[in-house]
Write a structure and sequence with these properties.
Helix content: over 70%
Number of helices: 17
Structural class: mainly alpha
Largest sheet: none
Strand content: under 5%
CATH architecture: Up-down Bundle
Shape: globular
Number of strands: 0
Oligomer: single chain
Radius of gyration: 21 Å
Number of domains: 1
Order of helices and strands: HHHHHHHHHHHHHHHHH
CATH class: Mainly Alpha
Length: 470
Amino acid sequence: MLVVYLAGVTAWGAWLGRGQTGAQDYFLGNRELPWVAVMLSVVATETSTLTFLSIPGVSYLGTLGFLQLTFGYLAGRVVVSAFLLPAYYRGELSTAYALLGERFGQGARRFASAVFMVTRLLADSVRLFATAIPLALITGWDYPVSIIVIGAITVVYTYFGGIKAVVWVDALQMGLYLLGALVAIVALQVLTPEGWAGILSSAGEAGKLAVLDLSFDFSVPYTLWAGVLGGGVFTMASHGTDQLLVQRLLTCRDLAASKKALVGSGILVMGQFLIFLLVGLGLWVYYEGRTFGTTDEIFALFIVEALPPGIRGLLIAGVFAAAMSSLSSSINSLASASAYDFWAPWAGAEDDEARTLRAGKVFTLVWATLLVGGGVLFIPLSDGNTAVEVALAIASVAYGGLLGMFVLAIRSRRADQRSAIVGMIAGIGVVAAIWVFARADVAWPWFVPIGTTVTVAVGWVLGRGNRTEA
């Protein structure tokens, strides 16, 4: 089942890229993809393998409190659809950072794009490492071999198919890995003595069904305030300034379709997280609270050890689906930022679609190699956290600076290129210092609000006011 799936999806994805003539086709799908497919692609891209493997571990160790973040995730999407998406659709922008180039100049555009590249490389290396866990358990291969196999399969359809293949395969893969989660829920009904009635009863007695935490403790990552404020600002950054997700939204036919894809994805994410958190509660009962070396292995071990052949293949295919959707999206978005933000202006090819397409395919191979290499070299930095929390923390370090620069670009008359770049450096620096020296006191959901505030404050104070509003 696994082999048939991997071969089929690779061939289909490569076939979807037929007839491409320029970079607009390759990176933006000629701006004609349906919003429903884009919505599913957004969800598949942002959650991926870490949702499949790590979110059950979050509720296994704790409660349903992670759901509080989804309240902010939805609110943040509404804000982006109201303020940032209209700015993107006012012009024919090729990347998220082209907006900064129009407002501040090419230096700000390249700096923000470079920060995106480094952040995406680090965060997605964690994702790729997490994906290798079930493959290594099944095959007995070492993690490096598992990571290389995943990368090699994914790069084929990403290279040939471009963003059109990424979006449509994402839509298929999201359906597959959600089906896998539902199959696990049915299996837990059969494999636990009292089924889901007993699971929910035991979880309730242990206080694991709690969703809301109204405390004001900044060291606790999952409180209502961290979820609504921290999660909301995090989503404004991830879905409004990260090329990985903005690129999806720019493939829609118009602004209205893009808004529907974005807000709809927020509703889907809430349901998806609930499903995987429930799986974690079921595993907690099934394993009777057993302690594991890393919680990211719990669901993978259950798949390998407890499920029969066929069903096991379906769930492992779901893991691969989640992994490939995230990796293919990262490769394509990194290649598009490299081609449009750096190579095309340098080579004088901004109006040459054919040359930019050829360069984009080269960058696709380069970034695929770097991501696979990063996954091989990754050593868990967990300190008891799941891989999903590590990846979110890495992204949060840079997101505040990125969002702050976009706020300055859209809302401030005073800020100029120099002050915006200095503000972004200050925002990222402050959050990085907190992560290194005070992460026990400040949880990662607060990183983006802090970074955004510092960036905007420094950019406004140092601004010379010699540029007009964008």
